[in-house]
Amino acid sequence: MRREDARLGQEPLRLVQFTRSFHIGGTEVQVLELLRGLPSSYQLQVSVLEDAGPLMSSVWKLGHAPEVFSLKGSLLQPNTLMQIHRMSRWLKSNRVQLVHVHDFYSSILAVPAAKLAGAKVIVGRLDLSHWQGKARRLLHAQMTRMADHVIANAEAIRQLLIHEEGLPESRISVIHNGLDLQRFDARAAEGLKDTLPDTGGVPTVIHVANMNHPVKRQEDVLLALAMLRHEGTKLNAWFVGDGPRRPALEKMAHELGVADGVHFLKHRTDVPAVYGQATFGVLCSTAEGMSNAVMEGMAAGLPMVVTRVGGNPDLVTDGERGLVVEPERPAQLAQAFRRLLANPQEARKMGRAARGFVARELSLEKMVRRHDALYRQVAGLPPG
């Protein structure tokens, strides 16, 4: 996907991508795609808070040895100030012109360090800060205000920045996440890495999310399944993901009498292939940024049922690329499931539209191109 650049005679733009780590997650995957896709007119460097994660090997293969600025477990210690000054010196010595920081913890170091070093800094705001307490939200807002520019990956986040944090519209750009459709299709074509439960021909809804935080609301899917079961409608469910909440969710499935059709698949490395075996998908969170799980479900050609929160409405237009319901309304979820089950032709049409939207609007090429243009703008360079 890398495109060679012909900006001859120009010094390379010295850019640092700074993220917490390279564990498997939406943010980390997007950073990796930027490292792969930005043109050769960049001199790219990577910095992290933790030299960890299974994606780190991919970073090394691209020729990057991340510089580590460890918080050592807490922001509230002298080490934080030491790391800020250390990073500032590192940015100066490498003549870095621009830093793109992708998460809350990294921004605490990167924003003041960039200011001390005389470098420009872009803060990525990729969720609705729903997991942060009041003090952290205030601190994140302050770091964001200090930045030269802000990238939100969904319109809902842009609105939050404007109306709740008072950021000028001119300092915010919305750049949606990108998905490598060719790579996704190749992974799907590799097939399943492990067996799936036998559904006996019963339609299956798939939910892909961690089980770390109540925001994902797997409970609402279970309640919707119970409602359908009560009226005699058959629907199985696959929950892909794991976390400390799984035992309670398994217990709830038993208490609702739907455990025989509900399967907790834990973490899977073959998600594209699993999507291909499902009837439709669901993500019913109470807060979201730009969900990679929804994007991947759409890429698999599934109609997605999503809640009207965060970036979900950017992806799914109700009745066109899937169905949109209000959060924490399991009865609405059940009704959406019922509609897709009763109208398979309409469901397939929505799935085709979803796949087309991903190919047209959410390509990696488009995501990288928009970042490239913004980087050059913020750095004060002429357009490419």
UniProtKB/TrEMBL annotation:
Q: Which residues form the Glycosyltransferase subfamily 4-like N-terminal domain?
A: 24-183
What keywords appear on the UniProt entry? Answer: Transferase
Example of a GO MF term: glycosyltransferase activity
SUPFAM superfamilies (UniProt xref):
UDP-Glycosyltransferase/glycogen phosphorylase (SSF53756)
Query: Which InterPro entries does the entry mention?
Result: Glyco_trans_4-like_N
Give the source's domain of life in one word.
Bacteria
The keyword Transmembrane appears for this protein = no
Alphabetized PANTHER family for the sequence = GLYCOSYLTRANSFERASE (PTHR12526)
- The protein in question is named Group 1 glycosyl transferase
Organism whose genome encodes this protein: Corallococcus coralloides (strain ATCC 25202 / DSM 2259 / NBRC 100086 / M2) (Myxococcus coralloides)
